[in-house]
Amino acid sequence: MLNRVLNAGKINKPQVCVDYSNAKLAVATVLKQEGYLAGVAKRAKRNHNYLYLDIAYAEDGQPALTKVQRISKPSRRVYEKATAIKSVRQGLGIAVISTPKGVMTDRQARKEKVGGEVMLRIW
After folding, report:
1. CB hemisphere CA count around 7 (13 angstroms)
2. From CA 94, how far away is CA 97, in angstroms rounded?
3. What angle is formed at CA 96 by the lines to CA 51 and CA 94, rounded to 5 degrees?
4. Among residues of the chain, what percentage have pLDDT more than 90?
5. CB-based contacts of 79: which residues, under 8 Å, 6+ apart?
6. CA separation (Å) from 3 to 9, 13, 98, 102, 122?
7. Which CA distances in Å does 74 have to 12, 29, 98, 117?
8. Mean pLDDT across the chain, nearest whole number?
9. Which of 2, 10, 46, 67 has the fewest CB atoms nearer than 10 Å to its CB?
10. 11-44, pLDDT tens digit by residue?
């Protein structure tokens, strides 16, 4: 999903369509709250659900999302305690963390003092 968003931003596409899952919706919602996506919509076509993600662009025409680093993978899960969660690029980026309280950013996880699986870092 994130590679599609990155590639669509590089060619200045306004929107990208991906298959729906609850995890993708949770990550997309966090990205929308942080300003990396302009909009998130779930639509059904022919008994199949899709997510339509509107790409956010800066005033100079550059996409808001420039780099993504996937941390936790199926072959290696990475978990962090609330006290061990570090900021990304000295606060210029975010880390998306799956916690028992839901998917949230690193700042929210530190504020609520909850750890979890570090899914990805974005800047």
Report:
1. 7
2. 9
3. 110
4. 95
5. 115, 116, 117, 118
6. 10, 13, 19, 23, 12
7. 31, 22, 14, 12
8. 95
9. 46
10. 999 999 999 999 999 999 999 999 999 999 999 9
- For the chain, helix, strand, coil in percent to 5 are 30, 35, 35
Tokens of 20: 């729906």
Note the pTM of the prediction, 2 decimals. Answer: 0.90
Distance CA 46, CA 33 (A): 30
Amino acid at 75: S
For residue 95, which of 67, 75, 76, 55 has the smallest C-alpha distance?
Answer: 67
